[in-house]
Amino acid sequence: MTTGKKWALCITGAMVLAVGVELVYLHHERNSPGTVVAPDEYGKVDPDELVFLKKERPSSMADLKDLFGRTVWVSAAGQMDYYPYAAHRADYGKSVGILLGAEPLTIKDAFEQAAPKSATFRIAGGDRQVLLAFTMPKSADPAKEYAVAVGYQEGKEFTFYTDDIFFYDDPHTLYTWGPKVWQAIDSHQVVLGMKERQVQLSLGQVSRNSSQDYGNRTVVYANVGHPVSVTYVDNKVTEFRPVQEF
């Protein structure tokens, strides 16, 4: 077996959601009620672990209307394809791209649509997928509308992943990481000294790890087709370089 095959495909520090075998990476690092945050050897707790991440917990299409007109930020970095949108429909045949970490979206609409199998890798197709229509206020065309799948309907039951795909508050204010780190994240780059959580938001959550020793390992990030190998020591980037294959 090659070294590459020995590496575990995983996402660090979070529960991986699964619907069949399709939701391979979709997840978000969330604080659960009653979670005990372990201090380090000096008795200090990483302040990132104490950040409160809001959840909406929608259970119906009507609940999604609470998002209309609001701005959310992408948490499931480097995973979700988005599509052209018009007249309550997504054009599944023309993926515009993949949503990147911390990118702001303004929600405009929620709708259901039967999805082709090619669009059910992250979100199951069910009887119909549930999608949100949105604009991208920081894009070159902030009025243009797109759509992204956020759940599905199976019979009378709905399953939603909005709490895992989005931040409901601006992560730039939730996490006090400083301008240098946020500049790297917003430009989807890596700088020395970044933590795993920060790089994951910058380069995306689709990754391959050399070990389960969080913060002391090498992680290769798919980085939307431009893989990057990043080495951490004491949860700080000590080396990074582009690689040929993920």
Structure overview:
By secondary structure, the protein is an alpha+beta fold. It has one domain (1-175). Helices cover 13% and strands 28% of the residues. It has six helices and 14 strands. The protein has helices at 3-6, 61-64, 162-165, 171-174, 179-186, 196-203; strands spanning 8-9, 71-74, 81-86, 89-90, 97-98, 104-113, 128-135, 145-154, 157-160, 166-167, 207-209, 218-221, 228-233, 236-242. The strands form two sheets. Strands 2, 3, 4, 5, 6, 7, 8, 9 and 10 form a nine-stranded antiparallel sheet that branches. It has a five-stranded antiparallel sheet with strand order 1-11-12-13-14, with helices on one face. A hairpin with a 2-residue loop joins strand 3 (81-86) and strand 4. Helix 5 runs parallel beside helix 6. The longest helix is centred in the last third of the chain and has 8 residues, at 179-186. The radius of gyration is 18 Å and the shape is globular. The two termini are 17 Å apart.
Brief write-up:
Helix content is 13%, strand content 28%. The chain contains 6 helices and 14 strands.
Mean pLDDT: 87
- Tally of discrete structural domains: 1
Largest sheet: 9 strands, antiparallel
Overall shape: it is: globular
Count the beta strands.
14
Q: What's the arrangement of secondary structure elements?
A:
Blueprint: H1 3-6, E1 8-9, H2 61-64, E2 71-74, E3 81-86, E4 89-90, E5 97-98, E6 104-113, E7 128-135, E8 145-154, E9 157-160, H3 162-165, E10 166-167, H4 171-174, H5 179-186, H6 196-203, E11 207-209, E12 218-221, E13 228-233, E14 236-242
Antiparallel strand pairs: 1-11, 2-6, 2-10, 3-4, 3-5, 3-8, 6-7, 7-8, 8-9, 11-12, 12-13, 13-14
